[in-house]
Amino acid sequence: MIDIEELSFQWQPQQSKPTLAIPRLQIAKGEHIFLHGPSGCGKSTLLSLLAGINRPTTGKLSIFGCELNKLSNSKRDAFRADHIGYIFQNFNLLPYLSPIDNVTLGCQFSKQRHQKALTCSPSLPLEAARLLNALGLDNQFHQQNVANLSIGQQQRVAAARAFIGAPELIIADEPTSALDTNNRQSFIALLFAQAQAVNSTLVFVSHDESLQPLFNRSIDLVALQEQI
Ligand SMILES: Nc1ncnc2c1ncn2[C@@H]1O[C@H](COP(=O)(O)OP(=O)(O)OP(=O)(O)O)[C@@H](O)[C@H]1O
């Protein structure tokens, strides 16, 4: 569960107005949230706070009972490695590594996720292969350099890397923007199936409002900041 109270964030101390000012936001465990709003309204900034990359300037941000606003940078890094899978807009894959190696990297910084992954498969590479297949990337592509894969295939690798070790929260920042409409919807169906299998909470940012009905709840970041 995510719990935000009176949160504000500003990139620079001299800003006249904070980038984000959210009075209240609660997200329940297992919810699939569609987060939207105009360009520059602060969606990626909010994701960076949820992921513990940045810390709120003021206010409370608690994820699964842990108050991230009170943790040091290194403790937030450890929290992120243990509990959060992040699918970046540009995927951030290592191009000279195979899909299997990219996916297993998701466990390198977390003993907890490593152990959880081994409860599903006998080894990390086998668990990576299981997730890649579940997300629609066949075995024939598992050992190639990811640089040789299509954008849609790279996106499946990025999603499998986020899901390995069953993190409680999956954050996805416009992961479907390079795909056509049919591929977007089928990718989201696979994403939901994985999230449901381990009851992960999903926070998904997109400008494509046609995707909204697929989610449990839609949050307009501008309206959220105007609530009294
Ligand atoms: N690293 C940074 N340093 C300073 N300001 C930043 C930084 N990153 C973002 N900003 C500013 O914060 C504001 C919100 O940016 P953010 O990227 O969160 O918006 P967004 O809603 O995700 O936009 P988009 O939909 O275009 O991706 C913008 O005014 C942006 O210029």
Automatic annotation (TrEMBL):
ABC transporter domain sequence ranges: 2-227
Keywords of this entry: ATP-binding, Nucleotide-binding, Transport
Coiled-coil ranges from the UniProt annotation: none
Keyword set includes ATP-binding: yes
The keyword rRNA processing appears for this protein: no
A GO molecular-function annotation: ATP binding
InterPro entries referenced in this protein's UniProt entry, alphabetically: AAA+_ATPase, ABC_transporter-like_ATP-bd, MacB-like_ATP-bd, P-loop_NTPase
PANTHER family xref list: ABC TRANSPORTER ATP-BINDING PROTEIN MG467-RELATED, LIPOPROTEIN-RELEASING SYSTEM ATP-BINDING PROTEIN LOLD
Family per record: Belongs to the ABC transporter superfamily.
Protein name: Methionine ABC transporter ATP-binding protein
Natural source organism: Pseudoalteromonas porphyrae
